Amino acid sequence: MVLPPASPFAPPRGLIRVLVGEVKVVGVCPEGGVLLCSNHPSYRDVFLFALVRPGARLLVHPLVFSFPFLKRWATRWGFVQVEIPLAVDLLKRGEPVAICPTGLVEALGEDLLPYKTGAVRIAAQAGAPLVPMRIRYGNYPGPWVKRFAITTQNILLLLIWPFYRRGATVTFGEPFTVSGVDPKAETAELRRRMLAL
After folding, report:
1. Which overall architecture, per CATH, does domain 24-195 show?
2. Which of 47, 72, 162, 182 stands 20 to 30 A from 10 (CA)?
3. Long-range CB contacts (< 8 A, 24+ apart) of 158-166?
């Protein structure tokens, strides 16, 4: 398997300040081949991954690579498609990899979407630790946005983000290992640890 080259991409601090505001980091992300598992409350998360763990390879939906403009930037930033063998190889090479177990943006950051088992299966096959991670933005719109479908919520929040730019806190939990014997149970444990942050 030919692995895509790592990206030197690191977002300029000025861009982070414009898109997010001040970013506070709680805890420490281990070095080496670890699988960062984070909630996904905003499209701005992609910049936070690169900020708090430079060089982390973000696993993204293949649809991102179907649009020429998005594909260009995703490739430049070192993003890779969500493919278990590819993610396993990256981790075995000692590269940090990041994934959002829900697979979708949750507009209000409430963790209502189900978690997929891919993170546990990737970590088990690679023999790499999972690192729970939680992103909290300083402000969200009110519950009025819930009356819309999740896709509409995300589009609305993308359009009105300047009104909700109140900084973010990124929290790292303790790394832990999984066996992959019972992916559903271990995914439930991952979710429990992420929600506890």
Report:
1. 3-Layer(aba) Sandwich (3.40)
2. 162
3. 158/43, 161/19, 161/42, 161/44, 164/137, 164/139, 164/140, 165/18, 165/19, 165/20, 165/21, 165/139, 166/21, 166/137, 166/138, 166/139
pLDDT averaged over every residue in the chain:
83
Q: Which amino acid is at 45?
A: D
Beta-carbon count within 10 A of 196 CB: 10
User: Can you read off the two tokens belonging to residue 153?
Assistant: 């919520």
**Is the distance from CB of 42 to CB of 137 less than 8 angstroms?**
yes
Q: Which of 65, 48, 33 is nearest to 133 (CA)?
A: 48
Model pLDDT for residues 52-71, shown as the tens digit of each residue: 888 888 888 777 777 777 77
Comparing C-alpha atoms, which of 20, 42, 40 is closest to residue 154? 42
Query: Tokens at residue 142, please?
Result: 């009110």
CB 100 within 8 A of CB 163: no
Assigned token pair, 46 = 């992609």
Residue ranges of the chain with per-residue pLDDT less than 70? 1-13, 76, 107-110, 140-141, 164-165
C-alpha distances in angstroms, 114 versus 27, 91, 147?
A: 26, 25, 19
Q: What is the rounded CA–CA span in Å between residue 187 and residue 77?
A: 28
